Give the backbone structure.
Amino acid sequence: MPKEKGGLGLRGLEIWNKAAMSKHLWSLCSDFASSLWVSWTRCYLLRGRSIWELKCPGDCSWSWRKILGFRDIGRDKMKIRIGNGRRASLWYDNWHPLGPLEKILGERIIRESKLSRLAKVADIMEGDTWRWPSVRSLALSDLMRDTLNTFRPDSNREDVLYAFILWLAIQGGIYTHTKLLRFVEDLDHLFFACPFSERVWNALHAKCNLPWVQWSWLEILSWMEQFRGRSMSSIVIRLMFAASELGFI
C-alpha cells in the first residue's frame, strides 16, 4: 500500500522477482558482467550455448528453472543493435527487426542452412551486406523480402545490447542519485516514521534505558558505531537494533 494511504510503500514481491530474473538474464547476455555466478553459469550450465536455446532440465534447481521460464519475456526486452555481428547469436538473439530468427524460421531451416546453432550474425555478413543461406524456404524468402534495405550491418562497430536499459528507464528501475535518495527515504519511513515502528522503538529504548530521538536511517547507523565494543551494554544494544529492524520487514 502507498505511504500516502498509510502503508509502508513497499513494492510487490512479484515485480521485484521479475526485476531480479531480468537482471540475471542481462548479466548472462552482457559482455560486461563478470561476477562469480555469471562465470560459473556460463562454464557449467551454458557451456558455450546461448541462454535462449537451452531446454529446461527436469533436475535443475528451482531458481534456474524460474530464470529459464522467464526468457520469453526477457528476450523481448533485450534487443541487439548489429555492428560487425561477432557477438550476436544468429538464430537466438533478438537482433533482427522482426524478432529472433529461431522463432520466425523454425528448426527445419536451422538444420537445412548448414550453419551451426552457435553461428553468429557475422556468418551471414559480407562486408556491410547480408549473405543469407541458400535454403528453399517460403519463410526465409519472406524474411529477406521484409528486411528493409536500410537495415544493414556495420563492420566498423561492435554489436550493442541496448533495449533493456531503455526498458529499465521507462519502468523507473535505474538507480540514479534521485532514486537512491528516495530509497533512503523509504527506509526512514519503514524503520522510524510509521506509527508501529515508533511504538516499537519507544518500548525498546525504555527497556534499554536509552533516550528516544527520531533520527534518519543514516543518522542511526552513524550513532550505532559507538556500540562496536564487547561490553554487555554494547552487545545488548546491537542485538536490540538488529531484532527491531528484522521485525519491521
